[in-house]
Amino acid sequence: MNEEYDVIVLGTGLTECILSGIMSVKGKRVLHMDRNSYYGAESASITPLEDLYKRFNIPGNPPDSMGKGRDWNVDLIPKFLMANGQLVRMLLITQVTRYLDFKVIEGSYVYKGGKIHKVPSTETEALASSLMGLFEKRRFRKFLIFVSNFDENDPKTMEDVDPQKTTMRAIFQKFSLGQEVMDFTGHSLALYRTDDYLDQPCIQTINRIKLYSESLARYGKSPYLYPLYGLGELPQGFARLSAIYGGTYMLNKPIEEIVIEKGKVVGVKSEGEIARCKQLICDPSYVMDRVRKVGQVIRVICIMNHPIANTGDINSCQIIIPQNQVNRKHDIYVCMISFAHNVAAQGKYIAIASTTVETGNPEKEIKPALDLLEPIEQKFVSISDQYEPTDAGTDSQIFISRTYDATTHFETTCDDIKDIYRRMTGSDFNFAEMERGKQDIFGDAAE
């Protein structure tokens, strides 16, 4: 253990495992430790089901109707992958896809007036959608055509819009789109959590809608993918990548002290021994004196014996409840997966509702989502604090990840990874540098 490493990583959350893999591929000597005996840290998948009951202090064992405990792999933090998003690119170029199989999420829905509706994201779907009246459908179709043609390098496609100066609010006005169309466009296509984006430059939103459309075009049912056996497979895949390139992994290691000399990290002490390093990557739980609390997220894991009503009995979907529909400042999200993804016993479904906490009664805040899921066989409620680093790491060489937010995709996590990489290396993350040979997209995803 008394050895010298370029980088020590503490915690096996997805962010930490991806950075560990990236640094190993770059030829750095990496030691990766976790105080837990399992991968995934706060974003782990819990198996068997008995362990989930224990974790949430639910007395007794799961009833026999839940099937075998080993049939369950329950994510503590629900997220899907955008088929054309940054995490999929990272998986493909590093060939971590070799260790994983994916399925397409079968539907994407938005909540309006107490009901759920399929999210229209193509011109054809827009014309058939029950979310809009006839004239609004035509205006929305024109808007989608404008977005798909928009090219920052070709002024002819911009229709006198300045991508850096024109706000998104002005774009919606340009196409005479009303509040409810703005709601589902901003929250279900561009996947914003609040309405702050309306007064920011429109190019960000245009690019986010394009990402949604391109991801949807990949497989057709929805823009989202999910790994068989749960999200816990993702950090393990990147841990294997790190190991291939010489990274060393130690689970179940108590972390006694982060050793700092003259304001800079020099090592980590565990079981009386010190491993020395030049840089340290960790999640907030290891350095509570270097992070600040920025909010809370409530997540409710629900086990059901039926699919969600009004989704056409599909085995997986996402539902977004835009903030304005329920008089809130933040959206509410529902992710549903099932036995079809090898995460639940036959005939069982797992839906996880999540949102950013705004009041002293978080369970009441999430009720609109739980009402869509009834009847629920068993609920597991967690309220987690969210942290962000107060230390950029440039002096201390300690680089801290952010806590996972309430969103149901990994784009914000990938932004954090790229931000940490930039602070560690002084250069932008280059996808091409990570390339390990070309390969085809996921085997089972299109099924």
UniProtKB/TrEMBL annotation:
An example molecular function term from Gene Ontology annotations: Rab GDP-dissociation inhibitor activity
GO biological process, one term: vesicle-mediated transport
GO cellular component terms attached to this protein's record: cytosol; Golgi apparatus; membrane
Cellular location(s): Cytoplasm; Golgi apparatus, trans-Golgi network; Membrane
Membrane topology classification: Peripheral membrane protein
Main location: cytoplasm
InterPro entries: FAD/NAD-bd_sf, GDP_dissociation_inhibitor, RabGDI
Pfam families: GDI (PF00996)
Keyword Cytoplasm: yes
Keyword annotations of the record: Acetylation, Cytoplasm, Golgi apparatus, GTPase activation, Membrane, Phosphoprotein
Summary of subunit composition and partner proteins: Interacts with RHOH. Interacts with the GDP-bound inactive forms of RAB3A, RAB3B, RAB3C, RAB5A, RAB5B, RAB5C, RAB8A, RAB8B, RAB10, RAB12, RAB35, and RAB43; binds RAB3D to a lesser extent. Interacts with DZIP1; this interaction negatively regulates the interaction of GDI2 with GDP-bound RAB8A.
Family membership: Belongs to the Rab GDI family.
Name recorded for this polypeptide: Rab GDP dissociation inhibitor
Native source species: Oryzias latipes (Japanese rice fish)
Lineage of the species this protein comes from: Eukaryota, Metazoa, Chordata, Craniata, Vertebrata
